[in-house]
Write a structure and sequence with these properties.
Layout: H1 2-14, H2 41-44, H3 51-62, H4 71-77, H5 82-94, E1 98-104, E2 110-116, H6 120-124, H7 227-238, H8 240-243, H9 251-266, H10 271-279, H11 289-299, H12 308-313, E3 324-326, E4 333-335, H13 343-372
Antiparallel strand pairs: 1-2, 3-4
Helix pairs in contact: 3-5, 4-5, 7-9, 9-11
């Protein structure tokens, strides 16, 4: 059986026109005669769709109208589970290939209609195509109208009524009236290159899980990789296995990661802080320690230390200091914005003034009593 297959394959390769490529795939194209579906390369090679989504789209496109294409119905005929099929349908819905519409029937029942379009971009630009293409809504093909030059003369039953010409002796001069002329189609103007493109029909709110991810950030580098920074970074990376044996690096990985550690050291990061940030809580098992160190050196990079001008903004506000004064009575030093007396002298003066007032008031009362007597 293997020999027959190899012989048939060799014979088929010999019939491929042109020289065979030295690498890559070689196509042996056998034309289909029945049971085939035309799939555009925009779907088969879509960069934003997963292979599961492309396969589900091809399967839906090959099914006749009215076939149920729910998640459970597709899972019953596919090896993928319901979660992968649901994710693939969301990808197709986000890019316009699939749309699920809810419709209420006259009896009050709500149903979901699934609409699949094999060319969603053609719906956005219907006038930019070369011919009058329209989305197919039925599976019954319609024969194209033949050219006008080959159209036979219309039957007398549908010919428009016109007055008959007067009879003449020469019957050969009698000819049928000309058929009504069909107005020529007006050509559409070419699209303007400055025209604003129409808004897309479907705007995904959440990118699909297979959307292209942004490129990874480069490894940080110091302003200048001095010999001192190079030696310190090399020593720190070489000392990591003593604290965490799973972070054993090759010499090439160590040289690639030295600029990242040097950038941390340039930003006044302490070696023990760098070691803890790089080795704490690693995944288990750790398969690629160099990749983990590169990710942490890039994503956990501390900010640069503040400069002199930045520290000036953090200076403490000016505090007004109350000067020392000398008491006029006891020569004791005290804080006061103006010269005068200290607290004890002020209290003593107040007490003496109050005692003097009481003595004077008592003397006046005694004198008044004597005068009355």
């Amino acid at each position: 059986m293997d020999t027959q297959q190899n012989t048939a394959l060799t014979r088929a390769l010999a019939e491929v026109p042109g020289p065979l490529p030295t690498s890559g795939v070689i196509h042996i194209v056998i034309p289909h005669t029945d049971r085939f579906t035309v799939v555009g390369n925009h779907l088969a090679q879509h960069p934003g769709l997963s292979c599961t989504a492309i396969g589900i789209a091809v399967r839906i496109q090959s099914l006749p109208q009215g076939t149920e294409v729910s998640i459970k119905a597709l899972a019953a005929h596919c090896h993928e589970g319901e979660k992968r099929i649901a994710a693939a349908l969301r990808e197709l819905e986000a890019l316009g290939y699939l749309q699920r519409l809810r419709e209420r029937l006259p009896n009050g029942r709500v149903i979901t209609r699934t609409v699949f379009c094999n060319q969603p971009t053609a719906l956005l630009h219907p006038r930019q195509t070369s011919g009058p293409q329209r989305p197919a809504v039925t599976t019954t093909p319609q024969a194209p109208a033949p050219p006008q030059a080959q159209t036979p003369a219309p039957a007398p039953a549908v010919r428009p009524e016109r007055p008959m010409p007067p009879a003449t002796s020469d019957q050969s001069e009698q000819t049928d009236p000309p058929a009504p002329e069909t107005p020529a189609p007006v050509p559409l103007p070419p699209p303007s290159p400055f025209a604003t493109p129409p808004a897309p029909l479907f705007v995904p709110l959440v990118p699909p899980p297979t959307a292209p991810k942004p490129p990874p950030r480069p490894l940080p580098r110091p302003t200048e990789l001095t010999p001192e920074l190079d030696r310190a970074a090399t020593a720190l990376l070489s000392d990591l296995p003593r604290h965490a044996p799973q972070f054993t690096l090759s010499e090439d990985d160590l040289r690639r990661l030295v600029p990242g550690v040097a950038a941390w050291l340039e930003r006044a990061a302490r070696p023990d802080a760098i070691r803890h940030a790089l080795t704490d809580d690693p995944p288990h098992p750790l398969k690629h320690p160099a990749k983990l160190l590169k990710y942490r050196l890039t994503e956990l990079l501390p900010p640069p230390p503040p400069g002199i001008h930045d520290l000036a903004a953090l200076a403490r506000p000016h505090i007004r200091v109350t000067p020392f004064q000398t008491c006029d009575d006891c020569d004791r030093a005290f804080r006061s914005p103006t010269p005068g007396h200290c607290r004890d002298c002020r209290e003593h003066r107040t007490h003496r003034a109050h005692h003097a007032d009481q003595t004077s008031h008592q003397a006046h009362r005694t004198e008044d009593v004597r005068s009355a007597a």
